[in-house]
Amino acid sequence: MTHFTLFGNIDFTTIAADPEFKEASVRSFIIDPIIKELGYTEENIVLEKTIHIQTGSKKQTNPYYADYALKVGNCFVCVIEAKSTEKNVADIALIDQAFSYASHREIRSNYFVICNGLEIALYKTDLDRSLLLRFHLSEINKHWSKLKRYLCRNSFIEGKVIQYEKPQCQSDPHFDYAKCRLLNEIQVKKQAAKRHFGCTAYFTRQVWNVVAEYIRNYSKTGDVILDPFGGSGVTAIEALMNSRKAIHVDLNPLSTFIVDSLIAPVNIADLQTAFDAVVSEYSKKEPKTKTEIKEALQKYKQPKDLPLPKNADVTSVHKLFTNKQRAQLSLLKSLIKKQKDKNIQKALLLAFYNTLSVINLTFHETPNGGGNHFGFYYRYRMAKKPALKETLTVFEGKFKRILDGKKEIAGKINNETINNATIVRGTATNLSFLPDESVDYIYTDPPYGKNIQYLDLSTMWNAWLDLDVSKKDYKLEAIEDGELEKSKEEYKQLIAQSIKEMFRVLKFDRWLSFVFAHKDPEFWDLIIVTAESCGFEYIGAVSQKNGQTSFKKRQRPWKTLSGQLIINFRKVATPRTLMRANLGMDMSEVIIQTIEGLIAKNDGATLEQINDELIRKGLELGFLDLLAKKYSDISPLLQQNFRYNKERDVFTIPVNQGFKSHIDVNVRIMFYLKSCLTRYELEGKDAHFDNIVLEIMPLLKNGKTPTHQTILNVLEYIAERVGDDCWKLKKMSEQKEFSWETQKTV
Length: 746
Fold this sequence. Notes:
25 helices, globular, 16% strand, 746 residues
């Protein structure tokens, strides 16, 4: 196709001076052919769409008219403004006008276009009015593929259907990346892998078997797996354990130390011998008396007394230890450093690293026999009653874990396969050491805003292990706050640049699984917008438990997330874009309706379920940007409108309060019946059918009122008769799956 076949015999060198070529001509001869070629028909085009905008001091609502509003399904995807040839498509006033139409609540299109018959400019409907494409229409051949990528009728995702499957067989010779499907939530097997638990303690860690399943599902044997926010190295280690090549990148030197030390091949017998020698010499020289401690502090190299973050209880590293602890640890480290075999030295230093977590003044014992240190609280918090453990005893226990981990990985990670691992200390914002399209799969878990300041919290370990951190490292760290008090905007820019780099290095038709657990929808919107602007296509998000309940979650269960969403993208040649939706209602109504639907179907909903459902719906139904603008934290809304059940860790409808939104009557009946029968059972009362009906009927006035028979139909699915007229809930395993379609609602 050339511009001659698209625009007929128009001569673009003369139309600017043609007095007859006005706005109407721009529409007929330029815009209409472009729209038709992009695949839009009359049913997809709304001409002179009326928009009501409040103007003036009295906020009068005046009608305005968008020249073209293109639709896909029920959503507008682009507004096009036709202008005469003397107008400039980059004029700020024209951009503001078109943006006001495109962003209006009655339209909410993804893009807007300004065309003056000579040039065309395509803008993203965001706060920056980002210019995506601008060219002279005489050169449309050069730019058509890009324009089509953004605006083609088929470039938008309509009515997304998520498909879930079991992982493909990693040895399947017919493995097809394009046909991979999303995984269902995976049951957590947290402590079943010795290579992670007790070996690679870190602030956060992905569940190993979840990561392994994702790697097997989206890649095949021999593929290159990347994690640019490597952390404790679960992705890299599981890639190697599943016969892939692994690239681990992290800015924190502690991260690369942990992974490199664990996978460095050793002879198990030699490692045991070296450990025995260190323990023997330590036992002879262990400083115990004041004199011995004083001498040891002078004789053995001490860690740098680095300053600690401002929120720490003490000012520097040395103050985290007693003199005795520091003397014994410095002796132990000096003996380890004498080992000539570098890989054995690394393994022993890994045990030393884990020992440091216990032998310090922040460590305290817990009632269950365990203990926690400052990393548990995400700040250097001194223990009121420090658990002063024996250094050698702790070191021996930590070494046992390292030895077990080394034995477990030896069959897959050894001298023959170690070249399949690439461990890089660097930033996810600059993966320049990797060529374009050189990676087969990315699974990554980035920092979540201000949740954890990794470099700050690693200061103690980095000081002892002689790992240097520069001001440049702090500047590149993708967090909020921290040592440099970074803003939310700085964090967003770093995450966005990271996604761009991931897109660059990933091969086409390959997948990116982006793990995220932030409550603020603004960050989710950032991920989607950035990923789509790069060329990723959003495929779907999956809820995934991480198998742990943090201290903050136990302290504030109604505010703190313990699970996560795994957002899955694919890099394709012609990606489709998620559309923005015209909701037709206030954002708070959408949220209330979503939450009530979850509560009704599940007899209560956890914070994680609510957050995941809102993010997923926001992504796939096109209101995530609105959610981000209005609700950075839904906790206040939850506490105001719902009741939190601490025993079950769920939100539910307050007693004697009906649903505020319209929920399917059968779903509402199910919810109220379960609630009613549970309470009767707890109170030791008989649940007579008449009493049940009288109690829940007033709560079912929202929408059509059911008959007694409707209530009885639902009751028979979830409960069993007791005597002639009473009911009690069946066990969960005995409850049938209720089929709403077979029920008649009156």
